[in-house]
């Protein structure tokens, strides 16, 4: 994204995080006139203290800028370019025992946002996803992430396989989620140490070439009639099993 590009974001948690973490990127905040949602009072007060531009306008104006459910407040923000492979090469060297989430072609922005929220909760060091054939870090993804999009170190790369090679060159083991015959249960796999966990597309899973670059495959044991989970649910389960092991 061009550093001068802007977009409207919405959602109380997303705005609160943007104001607290990156106020310099906020161009304008609009709150609905005659607002009765007192959950917005703190956001408005903080914005005023920081000297941010905030106006009260008819809700129709908010609806014109934002077609989603916006909770009575939206903000126009500058969208900085996300780090890419070149940044990853430098940054991975600075982490002693990396704990990384790689998302291979997640298409639904709400799933992407939910995965980011789980990654933040699990203390992941960085999240990597691709520029092409993937959901971007859209306002919908940011709202679903509930602030995690601002707190996480997120890399948007041109080629997932090249990103995995960078990680491998720096001693990171690549663990791909897949139900192949040689896949190990997450409860038996070793997810300690320097590890990247790869989760794939909602319908197709991780791509064959990405799978080929994984050091080992893991899966969540299923005991019911349903043989798959929503990718964001699976992300949370796998990440927190890794957290359990890393803290043991």
Account of the protein in words:
- With 248 residues, the protein is α/β, with parallel strands linked by helices.
- The chain has two domains: 6-78, 2-Layer Sandwich (60s Ribosomal Protein L30, Chain: A), CATH 3.30.1330; 85-247, SPOUT methyltransferase, trefoil knot domain (Alpha/beta knot).
- 36% of the residues lie in helices and 22% in strands.
- The protein contains ten helices and eleven strands.
- The protein has helices at residues 12-21, 41-49, 59-65, 85-91, 109-122, 139-145, 148-151, 160-169, 208-212, 231-247; strands at residues 6-10, 26-32, 54-57, 73-78, 99-104, 126-130, 154-157, 173-177, 184-185, 195-200, 216-219.
- Strands 7-6-5-10-8-11-9 form a seven-stranded parallel beta sheet, with helices on both faces. The protein has a four-stranded mixed beta sheet with strand order 1-4-2-3.
- Helix 5 (109-122) links the parallel strand 5 (99-104) and strand 6 (126-130).
- Helix 5 runs parallel beside helix 10 (231-247).
- The protein is elongated and about 60 Å long.
- The protein starts with 5 loop residues before the first strand and ends with a helix.
- The mean pLDDT is 93.
